[in-house]
Amino acid sequence: MSDDPAPAEAANGDGAPAIDPSTVDANELAQNMSQATDEQLAELMSGPMRGEILAEIFRRMGDHFRADAARDTEAVIQWRIGGRPDGGEDQWETVISGGACTVSEGFEAESARVAFTVGGADFLRLVTGNVAGPMLFMSGKLKIEGDLMFAASAASLFTIPSA
Question: Which pLDDT does position 33 carry in this prediction?
């Protein structure tokens, strides 16, 4: 048996306990995001928890997928999330096919119906319902490539947490 702390108890670098993203309620997360400043979110998304946070958000996409709204939708959605400490971006892919939603890290499909490029802090606000996609798009904080009509309706395929 290891003496290593459990993930929820591991230190985050400043001695404070780290948060296990898998234990956070989606609506609680949305509430916390609504109260955080852009600077706090940018710091969070450039810190050591970034990978775990993104992995948990994308893991939960399947849980929040609305198969009833998807009907016969066939789409690959690619996500480019900037703001990494090294200046790079994380890439995730959401595939909607046959009434199901699957997610993978990295791009597996050669092309996408739509690709979203967004900074880390704005991504958190978007997926927690704290900012509307059109608002981010109009302000230049969300770049969209591909099918703009589908992009405008993509959020309706998921139950978005509320603050």
Answer: 77
Would you list the DSSP string of the chain?
Answer: ---SPPGGGSB-SSSSBPP-GGGS-HHHHHHHHHHS-HHHHHHHHTSTTHHHHHHHHHHHHHHHB-HHHHTT--EEEEEEEE--TTS--EEEEEEEETTEEEEEES--SS--SEEEEEEHHHHHHHHTTSS-HHHHHHTTSEEEEE-HHHHHHGGGGB-----
Burial of 86 (0-12, 13-18, 19+ CB in 10 A): exposed
Q: Is the pLDDT of residue 111 over 80?
A: yes
Model pTM above 0.85: no
Q: What is the 3-state secondary structure (H, E, C) of 79-100?
A: EEEECCCCCCCEEEEEEEECCE
Domains parsed from the chain with CATH numbers:
19-157 (3.30.1050.10)
Tell me the C-alpha distance between 23 and 36, whole Å: 19
